[in-house]
Amino acid sequence: MKALAGYLAGLLFGLGLAISGMTDPARVIDFLDVAGDWDPTLMFVLGGAVVTTFIGYRLVWRRQAPLFESRFQLPTRHDFDARLLGGAALFGVGWGLSGYCPGPAVASFVGLSAPLMAMLVAMVVGWWLARVVSR
Question: Which pLDDT score, from 0 to 100, does residue 55 have?
């Protein structure tokens, strides 16, 4: 059941990305172009996600435990370090340059193009480098 719930959540997320147009990197690039042809679509998608998350967390925290686990697993670290800030900066730069973040990139895999392939390769290399550096 846990794997099925994860699959359904991923499917719902991917459908949401596709329906909202967030698999189109031009939407992200146009959102960042505040001095030109600005497209506010991403702001509304993110706003919808924040509202949904706000409501969802209020409902989940009423439970004693998650549906498919014995307890909630919450992060224990609360500090900011160079690795966290550097990773966030790299993520933002990559997203701004390519127009893709990992979710929409994977959801867009069906329409594979050269820029998408370059982004996916860079993402995998980044994951590999992060593992090598963190050892």
Answer: 97
Q: Could you identify the residue written with the tokens 């925290």? A: 61
- Cα 73 to chain centroid distance, Å, stands at 20
Alpha-helical (H) ranges within 21-77 are 25-32, 41-60
Q: Using CA atoms, how far apart are residues 47 and 14, in angstroms rounded to an integer? A: 17
- Residue 124, H or E segment: helix 114-133
| Positive or negative torsion for Cα 51, 55, 61, 65 | negative
- The backbone torsions φ and ψ at residue 104, rounded to the nearest 5 degrees and listed phi first, read -60, -30
The rounded distance, in Å, linking the Cα atoms of 41 and 99 is 13
- Going by pLDDT thresholds of 50, 70 and 90, the confidence category of residue 62 is very high
User: What whole-number distance in Å separates Cα of residue 124 and Cα of residue 116?
Assistant: 12
What gap in Å lies between CA 104 and CA 101, rounded to an integer?
A: 6
Q: What is the pLDDT of residues 83-115, one digit of tens each?
A: 889 889 988 888 888 888 888 888 888 888 888
- C-alpha distances (whole Å) from 123 to each of 45, 75, 102 are 23, 24, 8
* Separation between Cα atoms, residue 81 and residue 90, nearest integer Å: 14
